[in-house]
């Protein structure tokens, strides 16, 4: 359902599909969350619900409703934490951090704290691109906070993560090696 609603939001703008997502969450998903299920099914249900709630938050963002964005992102985080899903937890925290960054200098401390929590939640992820993305958000928040040292450190961590990515473009995965594989090539 998240895919269908996400496609509708992409085509029609989030505000047009938002009411469908909310209705589905209230009328269908809510009763399921209150039901009986195994621990594994519960984790999967909470994870899927976290994704849908996060999507509803982005739909609210499309409409400029910052209060709803914050509520949905925070709820998506709680659901992801309940599911024990670090990737969804990091995604929800990222949404909150980006919102705080977008709200400007007045929210620099909140942006930094949320970005740090996001990076912490993502530390066990194997997805180098996601880790890089979250580190870049931390760099943005650190810059907004005026912490040049942390911003530089986060950008370096982002670059390191991208360089480790198996699908990184050639030339980004560190220095090219010679045809024999003996080490870095040199140019005269």
Features:
188 residues; disordered C terminus; 74% helix; globular
List the helices and strands and how they pair.
Elements: H1 2-12, H2 14-33, H3 39-62, H4 66-83, H5 86-102, H6 108-121, H7 128-145, H8 148-164
Average pLDDT works out at 83
Secondary-structure element order, N to C: HHHHHHHH
Strand content: under 5%
The radius of gyration is 20 Å
Low-confidence stretches: 175-188
Number of helices: 8
Look at the helices and sheets and give the structural class.
mainly alpha
What is the 3D form?
globular
- Helix content range: over 70%
Structure in words:
Helices cover 74% and strands 0% of the residues. The protein has helices spanning 2-12, 14-33, 39-62, 66-83, 86-102, 108-121, 128-145, 148-164. Mean pLDDT is 83; it is low at 175-188. The protein is mainly alpha-helical and 188 residues long. It has 8 helices and no strands.
Short description:
This protein has 8 helices and no strands. The protein has helices at residues 2-12, 14-33, 39-62, 66-83, 86-102, 108-121, 128-145, 148-164. Residues 175-188 have low confidence and may be disordered.
């Amino acid at each position: 359902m998240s895919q269908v609603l996400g496609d509708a939001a992409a085509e029609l703008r989030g505000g047009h599909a938002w009411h469908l997502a909310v209705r589905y969450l209230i009328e269908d998903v809510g009763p399921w969350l209150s039901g009986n299920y195994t621990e594994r099914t519960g984790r999967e249900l909470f994870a899927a619900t976290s994704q849908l709630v996060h999507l509803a938050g982005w739909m609210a963002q499309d409409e400029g409703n910052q209060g709803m964005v914050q509520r949905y992102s925070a709820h998506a985080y709680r659901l992801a934490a309940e599911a024990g899903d670090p990737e969804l937890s990091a995604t929800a925290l990222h949404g909150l951090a980006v919102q705080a960054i977008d709200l400007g200098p007045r929210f620099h401390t909140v942006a930094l704290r949320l970005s740090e929590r996001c990076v912490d939640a993502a530390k066990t992820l194997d997805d180098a691109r996601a880790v890089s993305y979250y580190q870049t958000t931390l760099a943005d928040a650190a810059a907004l906070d005026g912490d040049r040292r942390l911003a530089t450190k986060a950008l370096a961590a982002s670059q390191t993560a991208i360089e480790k990515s198996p699908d990184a473009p050639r030339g980004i995965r560190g220095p090219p090696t010679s045809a024999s594989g003996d080490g870095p090539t040199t140019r005269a």
